[in-house]
């Protein structure tokens, strides 16, 4: 097929994470994950980390949307939409409840056997994230999280365990979700399992943790390739697209520096196999020592990923002068007067996705997937039971159009998985009312609801998109 359209074998689907959907947080031998100690929150009241679970606090990830007991129903709905791929994660604490257990939890392994069997029944390819914001909380208590190199070998043992177990069911793997989250202290806990310490600068710990994860990723890539030559193992970057607020050279330089550290550094290491030159000055000026060893350097070079994936939701502006601010995924920035915003203040920028795709492919020249993209919004159930989420259709339509343009530009784009195909617990706020799915889940922020699944208008629209391989984006009345 000509590059004016998506490739014939393009992987259309959706993305979720175990911590956002599974629930059953202490069932069948599962241990606590970091997300199980994360309270509910909102745009106005951030989520809190509670080392000791509080009786009166709400922990939405404990229940998720009960995918653990309803996975057959949910996968059947994904199949009805025509999914070619389903991006999911395995909960580390379901396999090794404390992270450093001597033997894996068979009940946890068996659960994912059943999930993969169900996906195979519908010919849906699993795309598995090994660690997606769900490291065992015991590793936080005992080791202090990912700033401790001890977690490298524990992670590699976990990865080898699931590689061996599922080598016939899974081809596509991602080592860490949004690994570059650790370039900002916001990601210290959810990404690195390190307890928040607002009274001190955590950049040293965060970049040490990031380094340890990249070494662990590289080791896992090598192990995976030894186990199965058919494995394709990728990285996953949270791409925080930024533009200079003005043509002032100072704004351009600030934007470049932000982009280098927060967007490109982790990808450069995981794809190219070595730290980029610009990192040296940043580490020196910020008194950061990542703990690099000669062995680490060899490991990073030998454990380069096979493909590059990223999340994309919005863009922000950067400038030397202050101005009106906007919210965002991980961190905000300055408001762009040319863009509209979502109800949660995220700036909607479809063309930015084309810009990012070209930027990434120009830099790395390896296959790319967009593995998270979507609109969080409050959906209204009409008296007749229908849910008319035209705003979501419009958002996704515009982004798919820009992906199509990127394919015409020559980008080797292999897949697209929206977050989330079914309503789930928002990672940023812990809310249910911030809904992303094509499938509505009857569950409210206060825990009420039947958990009934219901198709939204976007369900049939996305089914049409997949059936036409991205050619038919029209919206019926």
UniProtKB/TrEMBL annotation:
Spell out the molecular function terms from Gene Ontology: beta-glucosidase activity
Q: Name one Pfam family in it.
A: Glyco_hydro_1
Q: Give yes or no: UniProt keyword Hydrolase.
A: yes
Q: What is its EC number?
A: 3.2.1.-
Fetch the InterPro entries from UniProt. Answer: GH, GH_1_N_CS, Glyco_hydro_1
Which top EC class is named for this enzyme in its record? hydrolase
Hydrolase keyword on record: yes
Q: Name one GO cellular component term.
A: cytosol
Keywords recorded for this protein, A-Z: Glycosidase, Hydrolase
GO annotation (BP), single: carbohydrate catabolic process
Q: Which PANTHER family match?
A: 6-PHOSPHO-BETA-GLUCOSIDASE, GLYCOSYL HYDROLASE
Q: Which family does it belong to?
A: Belongs to the glycosyl hydrolase 1 family.
- Would you tell me the protein name for this molecule? Glycoside hydrolase family 1 protein
